[in-house]
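Regression test case RT-17, inverse folding.

Input:
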């Protein structure tokens, strides 16, 4: 039985590991939720699937199947998309621990140790003078902490990204001897330092698609942490100009040295600049970035980001022309930023860049459809706000074939039926797959426009060289005959039919179908 398979020693050791490895200010909510789920009896069907590995069902908003590794917590997992140690894993642990001890006593023990540790930290702060705020001093402190962190965690471990986000970063912000803006600036720099380590140590994992995806997700999620710290700084701004200048230089160095994940580095750079720095810092930052000769892509993209933030759009075109890194992800992000700020007239510059530089081709092949969809969504917002559809149609043309469906609807809405037919011919869309009401709509306006589609359908069926396709070809030939008759061009139909019969005279089965369809004689 499960109760006899797990000893008290194993569960006590797991309890100590949970307390040591989890930062409870971050996981307190998950613990309380898990305790509630356990006490309400929502844990059931627990079973030992491997030695010291237990799986169970936990009823929450849905039924989840957490898998708890009591020996190595980092290998525990759950179906939910919550934090590393989610409420369902806590609920399962409490369910197991109840077999060997009092869950309430365990939770009180965890809380008591946290409360006992707090006065010690307070005493240290009271006994020591608060050190002067310095970015350089903070960085040295973070480096020292990271050195000790590396002694406990291997960078080659698949979970190293998780350890950086949920163990190392919380350890940096536990002891902050500052107040107001300086406190939150310290938090921000701890986040920036962790962000740089995430990028630095992601390199060995880039060769595996699965592992790279894990790091991509971790880095994207951590940018949200940086955004939260910036939001706190907006409410408690820093007034120390010397400290701000140190911060500016730090962020500039971070973006200029970026190799991997340049897209996310530029976003973080823009976040920090929008939060901390105003127009008075722009000239100095711009001059320092331009001092790098020749300008690398990182400097060019940073200068573009600054120009966008401070509405210096005239500075952007020469910078864009010489960027060698893929631009499409940056442009898509910037377009959304401009749209959110309702700067519609400033977006026209980017439509021209997308069209002339064919930026969609820079996106990985498997993602081009998604990128085209997102670009068209922003372009549609632009068109609706400005009533300028010129760029929208040019974009639809530039993004083909990924925009074929959207372009088709656009042409129908604007009654450009000839172009609609040409689009379907170029795209190789078979007439049989086209929505019938669309064909009826065009037929009422000008049925001659559909003739190229019918002719192509006949040619394709004849090339298939089987009886079923010949029957379909005859069906379309009857539609062609009806169309020519209605257009008063019956002589053209006879010429076409006679030439077709001559070209296919060796196809006996097709000739038989023509005979059955009464198409050989008027």
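Golden output:
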């Amino acid at each position: 039985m499960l109760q006899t398979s797990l000893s008290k020693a194993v569960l006590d050791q797991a309890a100590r590991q949970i307390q040591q490895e989890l930062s409870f200010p971050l996981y307190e909510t998950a613990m309380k939720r898990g305790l509630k789920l356990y006490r309400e009896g929502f844990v059931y069907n627990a079973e030992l699937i491997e030695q010291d590995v237990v799986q169970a069902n936990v009823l929450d908003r849905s039924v989840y199947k957490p898998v708890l590794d009591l020996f190595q917590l980092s290998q525990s997992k759950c179906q939910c998309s919550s934090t590393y140690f989610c409420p369902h894993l806590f609920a399962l642990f409490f369910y197991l621990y109840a077999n060997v001890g009092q869950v309430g006593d365990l939770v009180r023990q965890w809380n008591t140790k946290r409360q006992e540790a707090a006065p010690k930290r307070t005493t240290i702060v009271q006994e020591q003078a608060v050190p002067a705020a310095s970015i350089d001093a903070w960085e040295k402190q973070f480096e020292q902490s990271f050195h000790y962190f590396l002694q406990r965690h291997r960078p080659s471990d698949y979970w190293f990204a998780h350890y950086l986000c949920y163990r190392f970063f919380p350890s940096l912000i536990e002891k902050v001897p500052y107040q107001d803006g300086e406190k939150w600036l310290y938090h921000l720099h701890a986040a920036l330092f962790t962000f740089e380590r995430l990028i630095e140590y992601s390199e060995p994992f880039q060769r595996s698609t699965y592992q790279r995806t894990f790091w991509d997700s971790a880095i994207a999620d951590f940018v949200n942490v940086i955004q939260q710290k910036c939001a706190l700084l907006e409410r408690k701004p820093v007034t120390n100009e010397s400290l701000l200048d140190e911060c500016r230089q730090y962020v500039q160095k971070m973006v200029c040295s970026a190799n991997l994940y340049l897209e996310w580095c530029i976003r973080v750079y823009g976040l920090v600049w929008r939060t901390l720095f105003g127009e008075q810092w722009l000239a100095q930052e711009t001059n320092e970035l331009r001092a790098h000769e020749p300008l690398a892509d990182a400097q060019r993209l940073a200068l573009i980001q600054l120009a966008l933030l401070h509405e210096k759009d005239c500075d952007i075109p020469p910078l864009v022309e010489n960027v060698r890194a893929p631009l499409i992800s940056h442009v898509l992000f910037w377009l959304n930023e401009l749209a959110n700020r309702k700067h519609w007239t400033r977006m026209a510059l980017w439509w021209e860049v997308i069209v002339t530089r064919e930026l969609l081709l820079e996106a990985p092949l498997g993602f081009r459809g998604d990128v085209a969809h997102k670009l068209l969504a922003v372009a549609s917002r632009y068109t609706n706000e400005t009533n300028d559809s010129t760029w929208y149609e040019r974009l639809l043309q530039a993004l083909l074939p990924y925009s074929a469906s959207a372009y088709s609807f656009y042409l129908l809405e604007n009654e450009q039926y000839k172009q609609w037919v040409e689009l379907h011919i170029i795209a190789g869309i078979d007439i049989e797959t086209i929505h019938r009401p669309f064909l009826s709509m065009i037929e009422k306006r000008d049925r001659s426009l559909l003739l190229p589609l019918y002719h192509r359908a006949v040619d394709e069926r004849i090339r298939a060289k089987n009886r079923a396709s010949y029957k379909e070809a005859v069906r379309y030939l009857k539609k062609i005959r009806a169309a020519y008759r209605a257009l008063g061009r019956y002589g053209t139909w006879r010429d076409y039919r006679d030439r077709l019969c001559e070209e296919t005279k060796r196809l006996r089965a097709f000739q038989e179908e023509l005979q059955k369809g009464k198409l050989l004689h008027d």
